[in-house]
């Protein structure tokens, strides 16, 4: 593969994208993706899920243990918390498309458990065609990046979720783009902080709910 110095490597995944992609044809193509190493140890590709007409796209980091086994995004503990927060914020779950910047679970075995590992920049870049095409097909009004991995992949490496969460930022990706913390970070928070973290998360989603009503 020829590559200019300084240019981003072209992901092999681009060659798998159907000419006129639909969500079902994309999902099917992504099931066979081997554009980075992560498919090898994971159970399956976990593609995004939701209506093509979804107004909101929520973008996480990568599937977790549960998602890897079930084959659907945000069905584990973080997903449960997310569902509850969306409802509390007044966002109809049926209007939401959920996906991840990386479509295979990256983990390290620790005894019988599989511990989540942060995806590398090359893996995020390799997987990007799937996300870019999902965004192109769904054309959401609002994109919400969940956590630093998604936010920095989509809004730049210097983006700081902690400083800019809950505000709309300039981006070509969608008319409205924002970021907040990852629901897993709330689950990992110390007991005494968790309730406040959750409340702030709902508050950030509330900003999205309000924008959707306009
Ligand atoms: N965390 C994510 O970022 N995505 C999922 O799908 C599940 C947990
Ligand atoms: Fe392909 Fe993404 Fe899976 Fe890597 S993580 S093999 S790029 S679907």
Short summary of the structure?
The protein is α/β, with parallel strands linked by helices. The chain is built from eight helices and six strands, in the order H-E-H-H-E-E-E-H-E-H-H-E-H-H. Mean pLDDT is 95; it is low at 1-7.
Provide a descriptive summary of the structure in words.
With 214 residues, the chain is of the alpha/beta class. It contains eight helices and six strands. The strands form two sheets. It has a four-stranded parallel β-sheet, sandwiched between helices. Strand 3 and strand 4 (113-116) form a beta hairpin. Helix 3 crosses helix 8 (191-213). It is globular and about 40 Å long. The N and C termini lie far apart (47 Å). Residues 13, 30, 33-36, 38-39, 45, 102-104, 123, 126-127 line the site of iron/sulfur cluster.
Keywords:
214 residues, alpha/beta, Uracil-DNA Glycosylase, subunit E, two-stranded antiparallel sheet, 13% strand, globular, binds uracil, binds iron/sulfur cluster
Rg for CA atoms: 17 Å
What series of H and E elements makes up the topology? HEHHEEEHEHHEHH
Outline type: globular
Reported for the largest beta sheet, the result is:
4 strands, parallel
Overall pLDDT level = 95
Q: How does CATH name the architecture? A: 3-Layer(aba) Sandwich
Report the CATH superfamily: Uracil-DNA glycosylase-like domain
How many β-strand stretches?
A: 6
Report the structural category.
alpha/beta
Report the uncertain regions: 1-7
Residues in β-strands, percent? 5-15%
Report the end-to-end length measured between terminal Cα atoms: 47 Å
| CATH domain topology | Uracil-DNA Glycosylase, subunit E
Give the tally of structural domains: 1
